[in-house]
Design brief:
The protein has 21 helices and eleven strands. The protein is α/β, with parallel strands linked by helices. A hairpin with a 2-residue loop joins strand 3 and strand 4. Helix 16 (about 400-410) packs across helix 20 (about 465-480), helix 17 runs antiparallel to helix 18 (about 440-450) and helix 18 (about 440-450) crosses helix 20 (about 465-480).
């Protein structure tokens, strides 16, 4: 079967949306670190919309900081790939052409730094997941003991981390006397631009005070809020699209129709007109970010951990269980809902209903295991900040504690059938050791895990209501199982 590429585009069915601009006119203007499925279904999707409607030359240089998989997918396809939007009763296909080429950082770090240092690059954006910031989620400080940070401080000409690449490129631009770029985080972190700025400044200060000052004076770090559910692509998805298109697309990404992007309007040297294709350019992202992290991501993680332990593979399956739906509705109304204030004109109740409908989308095969990854990096933003506000206010923490207890049950590494769980988390070994040290006692397990300051900070172990409520849930999970426990309390 022929591959999707520039020559085979004309063979596609007429109902597939194609690039409406001359791809030959694209010039590298954006470097994106972490060109996984999410970027291709979100930021590149918005950039494609600008190119289709208004033209221009904003080409994207994608970069993987780990493996060559995405390059292997896209290079034979001239950077082209398909975004498939799936709802419960419809499917739309669009070929994206905004990505000019893909680089693999570890193969030649200096080459990537050189591209990022080119004055033609106006924006360096990134989706490297929470752990890619090499910071302590509890304090926000750069972890100077992180092996990649240690390496980069001693080998700035051959960095490994996203922070190292940014500082190396900014240092090169300063030395060459060219303008700085906008460094734009698109990861699910509160104040993501500020988190990135802090990490870059703390790293740069170790290189030289002059560099740190130049970055402070010349580089902007806008905060963003991003929202689109993008499950991992499967071989079954690729086979389905091949029959649909008559061509093989190894780079296809699956997503939902819903998409949202809120961006702090703070750019150093130009940007695409994303606001003309649906993005919101605002002065302050925080209120949108809080709503999304607490209502969407907090509920998503709670569903993922409890759903996985209850034996569900997909979120849509979890949402077919009335008790789990009631759990989410209560979480939206009470635990998370009481801690957010909607901006003027924003219908937060409709937004909550939208979220639950999105979770129910059966066409979107979003694995509970995928959402469960890297929980030690996600829980501080998704649940623990909400927890701290509730402890100071209304005190409604029940479902937050359920989510934390389900996570502890998950990171113990053994499911309810006694089978091993493949826990993908940078603190997986530490978490497993904490669970094992409890020797099967749920109360001891909660204290051991909540005592891990990298996740819970120094304060939450002292919060008796939190520790006791989490313990009660974990005891019930071990005694009755997660599904029976949720049905008992929310059925």
């Amino acid at each position: 079967m022929n591959r999707l590429n520039s020559e085979t585009l004309k063979q596609l069915p007429s109902d597939v949306t194609l690039p409406a601009y001359d791809r030959g006119q694209l010039k590298p203007g954006i470097v994106h670190l972490g060109i996984g499925a999410f970027h291709r279904a979100h930021q590149a999707f918005y950039t494609e919309a600008v190119l289709n409607e208004f033209g221009g030359d904003w080409g994207i240089v994608g970069c993987s900081l780990r493996s060559a998989n995405v390059r292997a997918q896209l290079e034979p396809q001239d950077g082209l790939y398909t975004v498939v939007e799936r709802s419960s009763n419809d499917e739309k296909c669009q070929v994206i052409g905004a990505v000019k080429f893909v680089m693999v950082g570890p193969e030649d770090p200096a080459a990537l730094v050189k591209v990022m240092a080119d004055p033609a690059i106006k924006i360096v954006s990134m989706t490297v997941t929470e752990k890619g910031y090499c910071h302590d989620p509890a304090t926000g400080n750069l972890n100077m003991e992180n092996p990649d940070i240690q390496h980069d401080l001693n080998n700035l000409d051959a960095p490994r981390s996203a922070v190292g690449y940014l500082v190396a490129a900014l240092n090169a631009r300063r030395q060459a006397g060219v303008n700085s770029f906008t460094a734009m985080s698109c990861d699910n972190l509160p104040d993501n631009g500020k988190v990135l700025e802090k990490a870059v400044h703390q790293f740069a200060a170790q290189v030289s005070p002059e560099l740190a000052q130049w970055i402070a004076d010349n580089t902007t770090f806008p905060c963003t809020m991003i929202d689109r559910i993008v499950p991992a692509t499967t071989d079954e998805d690729r086979e389905h699209l091949e029959k649909r298109l008559g061509l093989r697309d190894e780079g296809v990404v699956l997503t939902e129709p819903f998409t949202q992007w809120v961006i702090e309007d703070k750019f150093a040297d130009g940007r695409p007109a994303w606001e003309k294709v649906g993005a919101q350019l605002v002065d302050d992202v925080e209120i949108f970010e809080k709503i999304k992290l607490r209502l969407l991501n907090g509920a998503h993680s709670t569903l993922a951990y409890s759903g996985y332990m209850a034996g569900f593979d997909y979120v849509s399956e979890v949402m077919a269980e009335p008790a789990f739906v009631k759990m989410v509705e209560t979480f939206h109304a009470r635990e998370a809902g009481e801690t957010v204030t909607a901006p003027e004109g924003f219908d937060v109740e409709f937004y909550k209903e939208q979220l639950r409908d999105r979770f129910r989308n059966k066409a979107l095969k979003h694995r509970t295991w995928q959402i469960a990854m890297d929980g030690s990096q996600k829980l501080p933003q998704r649940l623990l900040q909400t927890l701290r506000e509730q402890l100071k206010g209304q005190g409604h923490i029940d479902i937050i504690c359920l989510g934390v207890a389900a996570w502890i049950r998950y990171v113990s590494g053994v499911d309810e059938k006694g089978e091993p769980i493949e826990v993908s988390d940078p603190l997986a070994d530490t978490l497993r050791q904490a669970c094992d040290s409890a020797k099967g006692d749920p109360a001891a397990m909660v204290k051991a895990v909540v005592g891990i300051k990298d996740v819970f900070g120094p304060d939450l172990i002292k919060e008796t209501a939190f520790v006791d409520t989490t313990t009660r849930w974990l005891e019930a999970f071990y005694q009755d199982g997660v599904r029976a426990t949720v049905r008992k309390h929310f059925g």
